[in-house]
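Section 3.1: Structural characterization of target chains.
Under the original work plan, the team committed to producing a structural model for every single-chain target entering the pipeline before any wet-lab resources were allocated. The record below documents one such target. The sequence was received from the expression subgroup and is listed exactly as submitted; it comprises 204 residues.
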Amino acid sequence: MSEGVWKRPLVPIVGLVIALTTVIGVGAGCIVGEGGESRLVRPHGNSSLAEARAFGGFPLYFAGPSASRLRLEAVQRTDRTSPAPHTEFALIYGACRSVGGGGCSPPLVILLWPACYRYEQRYSIPARERVRVRGVPGRLSPTFRRLELYPAGTTIVINGGGLASTAELLAVARALRGLNTRLGASALLPARPDHADRTIKCRR
């Protein structure tokens, strides 16, 4: 059954990454620094690559077992019921350092949503932020090290706050390959059908 257009305001992506660190269990090695205890935090997700490969809801992608010298640490799956049922995946690369017991953001997170949840016509993208990567349109933030890509069926958001440059962020995008779909790292991403004059409705 088709759902109506989703009305929930979009959550800022940077806040979403920070929120991820609060819901993912962590293991930590501790060192003591001048500002108090500093902990190296390694995320632990609630899912796995095997589960992601078996998922049939929409195409999933990742950048391999490591990206930009960062190891894939965790796979997080979130099943939501509101505003319409959908599943989200996060592939989390690298550890981060927490000082004084506070939270920290992983250096690289690849977020995957169904295309109906977040898509380019749902909000205005300034011309200076529009890019084309792997054959599909995208949005490259000039403020945060973040790249959104809009292939068929999926919206991919790469948050690379811990990467050294935009070039490294784009290299991660070029390394994307399919998890539950056949797509190599050198192939173009599948094009999304044109929907410039209509919304994308989510289905149950």
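Residues 1-34 have pLDDT under 50 and may be disordered.
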